Structure formats: C-alpha cells, structure tokens
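## retry 2 of 3
previous attempt timed out at serialization; input unchanged, resubmitting
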Amino acid sequence: MAQTQAAIADQNAKQAQALALAANSQLVLSSDDTDLALVLALEANQLANQPSHDIQRALTAAAYAPGTRFVMQGHTLPITSVAISPDGKLALSSASDLLNPSEAGELILWI
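## retry succeeded, writing output
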C-alpha cells in the first residue's frame, strides 16, 4: 500500500513539473524565444507519462511558432525533404526540380 501511494505521489509530482514546464514554455514563447520554448515543451512531454492536452498544446505552439531553426545553404534546387538522425547531429537534405522531375536531384549531408 505504501509503495502504491509513493508511486502515485511520484507520478503526480512529475505531472506537476511537466505542467510547470509547459506553462514556462508558453511564457517564453510570448517573449519570442522559440528555441527555449521548444526545449521546455519537449521536456514537459517527455516527463509526463501521459501528457495532458495543455502539455501537448504547448509543444504544438512552440513547434509551429515562426522562427529560424537552421539555414541550409548549398542547394541550387528547392529542398524537398530533410531527415535528421536520432541524436540530432546529422541531417540529410534532398533537393529537386519538381517542375522537371527528369533532372538529377541533389543530396547534402550536414554534419
């Protein structure tokens, strides 16, 4: 019984911390600090066992907020897709001329 109550208390504490992170994410997003808002919202979603709608909403708002994430200079054609490694250290972008699909495309590995 005591272990169950301890587990419930631990889960409630994590949920409260996740809600605080989500609230802070929204606060810094209103100050146009998109990068910090995104980090806080991601941590809130990872911390909560089952993220509430408020926590998920904070992540959505930060993810779709305007702001520069990364400038990929080097392609001569429009970028059509980007894949990022799980550790976030590598990215692979592809570019092609959508109006002329027979033309060769481009791939760039970003390290």
